[in-house]
Amino acid sequence: MLNKYFLIICFLLAFSVNASEDDTLFVKGVYSQHIVDFFQRFEDCKAESKEEIIQHFNKGEFQDMAPSRIVNLGFTSCLNYFSLKVTNDQAFAEDYYWSFYNDGILFTLYELKNGRLIEIGETSVAQKLEERPTPIRCLSFKVEMQAFETKTLILKTKLQGHSNLYFPTDFTTVEDILIYEANNSFLLGRYFGYFTFTALFNLFLFILIRRKLYGFMFGYILSMMAFNAIEYMYDVHLVPDFLHRFWTHFPKMFFVLLSSYFHTKVFQYFTAHKEHFPKWNSILNLINNFILFILILFVVIKIVIPQNTAFFDQYRLLLFLLFLINLTVLVINLFYSIYKKNKQSVYYICCNFLLILSLLFYITNTFQVGGATIYMPPGNIINSVAFEILSLTIAFLLNYRKELNEMNQNLAAAKLKSEKLSEELIEVQENERQIIARNLHDGLGNTMNALRLLLEAPYKNEKQITGIFNLAKDQFRNLIYQISPKEIEKIGLYTTIQQDLELFKNTSIAVNLTLLGDDHTIENIKAVNIYRIFQELISNIIKHSKATIVDITLNCDESTCSLQIEDNGIGLKKENTNGMGIKNIKSRVSYHQGIFHIENTGKGMISIIEIPI
Asked: What is the rounded CA–CA span in Å between residue 149 and residue 153?
């Protein structure tokens, strides 16, 4: 039994060897198989003449190509010649197109006839449509063949703006390639239409909401559109003719790096990196700023020196290295963010999983890592980008809806707080009016009654009348000061408080006052309220604390004015925490969106007030 299997295997191997010996491509109309299997290649690193190339071909120095769908020979600076022997295996004439898909190669096609190389044509993406041998998107040469005619075709490739020799290729009929181009154009048109819609959508959001996230997303989509236009050679249709020749001098890596810049910015804003990971955010900003500088410098140099030179080969290598560095740091940062349980990062990697894989395939194709040559029309990158943009746009909308709900809730809470604050302020004003009325009645009112009695007495005492009159004048002045302390506007908050504390010199309470900063930075209305709070706290200490030492610190800087009062009294009783004085202080502090803290320390009481300037 084993012998039978061995004979079958040997038979199959023999059949495959016999098939591989046939180096002629027979075509009957549309040919759907890989034509690279029929190629033979010769590498020319000396820029030899046509006659020398013919000699190499006649001597059999053109080597067979390994079976593959595409030509992928890696990095090279040499010219390469590919021979293809093709036969029209039909009883009638047929026109064929030999087509190539790459944006950085100059293709020249010859026919070997009667021992001479006869040029059929030359083409590259730098040519406008009307300048190409065949005016279609893909780089194509028309090959006219009579019935049962056999031709030997020699293709020369010269790298222009690229360092690696890579191109898919096809040999088929005119009708077939036009159908393929039409179908592919419809497909890519849908992609570009979708990208255009999402780009405009993000632009409108950026204009309306003024959030940088949507602005960077707009830039990212545009840069990816530019990359895909070059990658699939649709820039010849999308870029105006007056700009096209300059445009073709920009390598794909320029737009890949530009996309990487915007993509990183989107990641930073989407995951709130500045708040959650400030150190990583600084590293990403440093890399991004350098990338932006290199890209701008590349544009400036291209304007001055539009031709491709050896210098630009090194510059393209720099672009590629920067892309790898940025991608590596971004991926490490992404996994670190997930490790730190950042939910937005988890969603972000789900959106970009396909894109990361596509970029890895793109890199392996470029460097021929593991011999990988993955090619997926219309391309795995464009599919991945479409999925990423769709999922991120949905995420942006959900986030925007969430933020809008939170904003509405905050507005509702602020409205309730404002209404409550207004009620408290009205209550404070009514209490102050009652205090003023009581002071008028008990103080100035009693003094005026006493003055009236002295004036009505039969024997008038001028000295007593003068004393009562001066007392009434002082009480009236104090009442006016209580209503509106104008001295604060004239002499400042610090000096006003110092003058008030002069009253403690002849009492049993020792007062220590520390003034820091500058009181000229405070608005008058805030200074008045801080003074009112100070009066209320000092009044409470005098009335209730039984303190002998009071430490007061007032510090006003560029952003905050803080008042701290500490005493060594009996502290604040629980039933007094909701008293009218404390309530008035809370209302004043809340009005200015400040902070009020009061507590017993065991050795007395401490009160801290902070009001933003």
From this structure: 13
